[in-house]
Amino acid sequence: IETSMESVALAILEHLTILDDIEDSAPASVLESIGNCKDIAISHHIVTLLDLAEVNPVRATEINLEAIQGRLNRAKIEAEKGNNFGVENALQEYERLRRFSDEISDSAMQKGYDTVSINTINAQSTEGQLETLGSIYEEVPQEMKKAVEQTIGVAVEEHAQVVNKLQEQNALGEIPEEPPFPDNIPEEVKQNTQQPESGGGSGNGNH
Description:
Elements: H1 2-25, H2 31-53, H3 57-81, H4 84-110, H5 116-139, H6 142-168, H7 187-193
């Protein structure tokens, strides 16, 4: 059963990639429909990984992190093409999946699993995600920078939450307590996204 759930989850990731390819060549008239298909795919991804997390939460976390980085890579590609619509949609998908990481950890804890390894790999992933977000921030035009900054805020917020969990478990180890900002994120953005009121979110997730 575990292998079957993992196969379904990986197939959904492949399906998202296929939808990206279709979106690249689709006329504007069908972009909303493709966006809806992506929303449905991500919903199925979440349900499948919650099921997988009941038997193997570490693997569920790894697959979700793969999906998270995939959405960031998509946003970066769209930024390089100058497609603000594509960037915003991919960032919204990233935010949804990044927040879902907490659900996997919380579900595993409720089931009695040791969540140190889950929280650790979530925390370790922040550096690479911020690096990609920094590249996107550099690439997008001025009118899109606030949306990217808000998504950086989500990454920072989620990092703080997982750090808190590790501290409660006395298992922070080598994980940096502060967000591991790369050099390509401006100081002003770093300061803005570390304010207590920073909640992030580049939109309501609708296409």
